[in-house]
Design goal:
Blueprint (H helix, E strand, L loop, with lengths): L22 E8 L1 H5 L6 H10 L3 E3 L3 E3 L3 H13 L4 E5 L10 H5 L3 E4 L1 H12 L12 E4 L5 E5 L3 H11 L3 H8 L5
Parallel strand pairs: 1-2, 1-3, 1-4, 4-7
Antiparallel strand pairs: 5-6, 6-7
Helix pairs in contact: 2-6, 5-6
Length: 180
C-alpha cells in the first residue's frame, strides 16, 4: 500500500498513488478546432504527462468538439471503462462555445469547490485571466471517479494538476470507502 500509518492522534499523511496502484485515467480535450484538425492539441498530451507523474496511466487524449452531449458521452465512456480520474481540457471560459462545466455539472455527485478555487488562485499568480475559468472539480454520480475540468491552455492544465495531483490518492481512497 502507498500510505504510511497515521501517527497516533494525527491525520494520515497525503501521498500520491504509485503506478503499481493501477490507477487508470482519461484525458478529454474539448475543442472545436482540435476536433476539426485545424489546431494541434497541446494541453491534452501535457495532461497525460502530468497525470503520469502522479501515477495515473492514460491513453492518448480523446478529442471532442465543444458540444454538451459529446463531452458527457466521453466522460461516461471513460468512467464505464474504469477510469478513476478524468481530466477535461478546454471549454471552461465564458464564450458561447465554452460549455464544459455545463456538460459536467449534472454528472457530479459532489463538487469539490475548494479544490477548483485553489486551481483558480494558482492561476491568478500568473495571469488575471485565470479568474475567468469556470472549471469544476468533483466526483461522478454513477461510479466513483474524480473529474477535473481544466482550462485549455498549457498553463491552466499545469496549474490544475499541480493542485489536484497530490490529492488524487487521498480522493480515490475516500471514494473507495477508506478512512478519512
Amino acid at each position: 500500500t502507498h500510505h504510511n500509518p497515521a501517527p497516533a492522534g494525527g491525520p494520515a499523511p497525503l501521498s500520491d498513488p504509485s503506478p503499481s496502484d493501477g490507477v487508470t485515467g482519461t484525458v478529454i480535450t474539448v475543442s472545436d478546432r482540435v476536433s476539426a484538425g485545424t489546431r494541434e492539441d497541446r494541453s491534452g498530451p501535457l495532461a497525460v504527462t502530468l497525470l503520469a507523474d502522479h501515477g495515473v496511466v492514460c491513453a492518448p487524449p480523446v478529442v471532442v468538439p465543444d458540444e454538451v452531449e459529446a463531452i458527457r458521452t466521453a466522460i461516461r465512456v471513460a468512467v464505464a471503462a474504469g477510469s478513476a480520474v478524468v481530466v477535461t481540457t478546454g471549454g471552461t471560459g465564458i464564450s458561447p462555445r465554452d460549455v464544459t462545466p455545463d456538460a459536467v455539472a449534472p454528472l457530479l455527485r459532489a463538487e469539490l469547490t475548494g479544490v477548483a478555487e485553489q486551481i483558480r488562485r494558482r492561476g491568478l499568480e500568473s495571469t488575471p485571466l485565470a479568474g475567468l475559468s469556470r472549471g469544476l472539480v468533483g466526483v461522478t454520480e454513477d461510479a466513483p471517479a474524480l473529474v477535473v475540468c481544466a482550462p485549455g491552455s498549457s498553463g491552466g492544465v499545469r496549474d490544475s494538476l499541480e493542485v489536484v495531483g497530490p490529492l488524487i490518492g487521498h480522493i480515490l481512497d475516500q471514494l473507495a470507502g477508506g478512512d478519512h
